[in-house]
Amino acid sequence: MRLCAGETEGPRILYVEDDDVTRKMIMLMIGARFPSLAVTVAANGEQGLELFRSWRPEIVLTDVRMPVMDGIRMAREIRKLSRETRIIVITADSDINRLLEAIDIGVNHYVLKPINKVKLVAALEECLNVIRQERQVREQGEFIRKLSRVVEQSPVAIMITDTAGLIEYVNPRFTRLTGWSMEEAVGGTPRKLKSGETTPEKYRQLWETIGRGEEWRGELRNRNRNGELFWVSATVSPITDGEGRITHFISFQEEITERKEAEETIRRMAYFDSLTGLPNRFLFRELLQKALAQAQRHRHLLGVLFLDLDRFKNINDTLGHSVGDQLLQAVAQRLKGCCRREGETVARCGGDEFVILLPELDDVQETARVARNIIDAFVVPFVLPDHQLFISTCIGISIFPDDGGDAETLIKKADMAMYRAKEEGKGMYHLYIPSMDNRAFERMALENGLRLALEREEFILYYQPKVNIKSGRIISVEALARWLHPDYGLVPPPQFIPLAEETGLILPLGEWVLRTACAQNKSWQAAGYSPVRVAVNFSLRQLRQLSLAELVERALHDSGLAPCWLELEIKENIMLQDEEVTIAALRRLRKLGVHIAVDDFGTGCVNINHLRKLPIDTLKIGQSLIRAVDSNHDEEVITEGLIRMARGLHMHVTAEGVETEGQQEMLKSLDCEEMQGYLFSRPLPPEELEKLLEKER
Ligand code: C2E
Ligand code: MG
Ligand code: MG
Fold first, then answer.
1. Ligand 2 mean position to 628 CA, how many Å?
2. Ligand located closest to 464 CA
């Protein structure tokens, strides 16, 4: 298809003249001045008319007076056939009537006889110019018609607006895409396509770009005449005039709804939970990361809530998974209802676990408020198609920046706090507190390991001497349990004794300690070291064991250790419990000659009347008192009082946790003779302790 305008061939001229001499002269002149003109000659009007019909020249140059048909008659006939043909008449000036007739016909030029060549050339030039222009206009029109057909039939929606944004043109594809006809669209603005789903920022960018005279490309979400949304990939370009001024904007819009929907489906699959439609944990983590960057920049607090439904497994097991699913959907809805503020996001982590992001907090208490709201919202039952269910949830909370700086840590800590909340009961929430790291986490790991530790023989005993500072001799060694954990190394008792007590493991463990300590002491004696007592710690739970006395007797019997070389350490708090059974057991043991000591004495509340009833040989004054004895007058007075009281009850006194010379001096001055503490020795493995016993010999 040729779109370019351009002359295809030179114009044609028909020259009608009966006089040979004139004809020759004019022909020579035309040939010289207008070499591109194609000339055909006729001798009279009739011939000329015939030639005109078949040849259709653009210019006719004719004499007037001719035989057969004169020039004026011929011109009249030609005019009937064509209004565009340029006609030049050569006539004598005397012929006024003819001249008037020529004007009537619409002849374009008159050249008077005798022929003025300059005039004739000017007339011919004028004709040629007009023809050229007309041809150009015609060809351009053709070109524009072709162009507009392209626009009309374009598979891309096209819209042209003026600089004020008023629509001047839309193509049929635009009408099909948007539902707005040409008549409805023209004169209006593209605003009627706005969906409200494209950000103002995007529109601002668009106008800024095209305002600068540049092309804008992007994806827009539009709305059609029926209110339905569709996606387009749009290009908007400014149109400029010859001087570079923007006169119009043209936009090309290609519908990409299907592609967008496919992308959206893929995105949803990757980022959303299919059951509840909530963001999944991947999306949550991304959103949290973004919110963290913001919070960091604006120095905001940020909260993460971790939720776990109470007894959800029960519902799943008893009512079936489909009811479980319905419940999770209902829970998701309710949670969303509780978190309506901008940026607050509820996500499902998996199973019955949800996480919530609270992006901008003024204070930590806001998280607690949201948590309470949620817990309260769960008081109302969940109404499902066939069931009405009550369920509660526990919530753990972590705070940025206090509990961590990254998404992973915050989620983990909120999770830990949630476990803590669970420990407290149903429908609880708990803020993360730093000590939980050990508490919740290691505790779980330890609890599992503890069950197997005995079988795997992972426990060992360390021994810490108690010395009489007057004689300088070791009078007793306290057996202190250690757990040699395969992963954590040496675990100190405060981390596993309470756990062992809770799980009941303290009973077999205690028996193992007792038997090992007795056997160890016996073997030291057999090896010839000067005999010392071995002290074994007993917990409340162990004391309640009905068979305590028998247990001890059997251990002594089996090891062959004499009862007087065994000492039992019992925590002071036990003394508060008036338990006849315990007291009876202790009496029985003491009768055998076993030494009984009260551990950590003076650190709790002391009931002297109660103490009197108990069969006790020694009071061990607790570390917390001793630590302050040389620096704080109150502690000194209390300690002195306790020592006096012990004397009055005919009991020995041991000070435990003696770390400094100062403490030792002060205790000495208070008449305390037996001491234990790092100042003398740390708890030692048996081989190390033997070295100390060696010196005693
Ligand atoms: P406890 O019976 O009061 O033992 C004294 C604790 O103080 C020991 O800690 C000991 O290592 C530590 N200690 C001794 N001298 C000093 C000192 O000068 N400064 C300081 N800061 N600490 C000192 P350990 O071994 O960690 O034992 C802690 C507690 O665990 C014991 O307190 C005892 O109640 C319990 N325990 C240990 N072994 C057993 C056991 O076999 N059975 C039972 N039921 N409890 C045990
Ligand atoms: Mg002790
Ligand atoms: Mg103690």
1. 19
2. 1
What does the block give as tokens for 485?
Answer: 């954990």
From the CB of residue 386, how many other CB atoms can be counted at a distance below 10 Å? 8
What pLDDT band is residue 652 in, cutting at 50, 70 and 90?
very high
Residue of 482, 490, 497, 503 to mutate, ligand 1, most atoms within 8 A of C-beta? 497
Q: Which residues line ligand 1 (CB under 6 A)?
A: 464, 480-481, 492-494, 497, 510, 513, 537-539, 569, 599-600, 623, 657-659, 677-678, 683
* Residue 42, Cβ density class (10 Å: 0-12 exposed, 13-18 middle, ≥19 buried): buried
User: Which class is domain 143-261?
Assistant: alpha beta
Q: Which CATH class is domain 445-696?
A: alpha beta
Nearest Cα residue to atom 24 of ligand 1? 493
- Region of 277 (left: φ > 0; alpha: ψ -120 to 50; beta: rest) is left
State the Cα–Cα distance between residues 68 and 547, nearest whole angstrom.
Answer: 157
pTM of the model: 0.47
Gap from CA of 682 to ligand 1 centroid (Å): 10
Cα gap 401→364, rounded to integer Å? 11
Residues whose CB is less than 8 angstroms from the CB of residue 232 and which lie 6 or more positions away in sequence, other chains included: 157, 177, 219, 220, 222, 253, 254, 255, 256
The residue count of the chain comes to 697
How far is Cα 223 from Cα 99, in angstroms, rounded to an integer? Answer: 69
Tell me the per-residue pLDDT of 82-128, one tens digit each, with 9 for 90 and over. 999 999 999 876 777 877 888 888 899 988 888 888 999 999 999 99
The phi and psi torsions of 217 (rounded to 5 degrees) equal -125, 140
The Cα–Cα gap between 509 and 497 comes to: 9
For 2-136, the fitting CATH number among 3.30.499.10, 3.40.50.1370, 3.40.50.2300, 3.40.50.880 is: 3.40.50.2300
> Tens digits of per-residue pLDDT, 529-578?
999 999 999 987 777 776 888 999 999 999 999 999 999 998 866 665 65
- Ligand 3 mean position to 639 CA, how many Å? 15
Contacts (Cβ under 8 Å, ≥6 apart) of 582 = 543, 544, 548, 574
Spell out the domain ranges in the chain. 2-136, 143-261, 272-433, 445-696
Nearest bound ligand to the CA of residue 466: 1
- Non-local (6+) Cβ contacts of 648 within 8 A are none
Helices in 179-280 by DSSP H: which ranges? 182-185, 200-211, 257-271
Residues with Cβ within 8 Å of residue 550, at least 6 apart in sequence: none
At 254, give phi and psi (nearest 5°).
-115, 130
Residue nearest to atom 13 of ligand 1 (CA): 657
**Top-level class of domain 272-433:** alpha beta
Nearest-CA residue for ligand 1 atom 45 is 537
272-433 and 445-696: same fold?
no
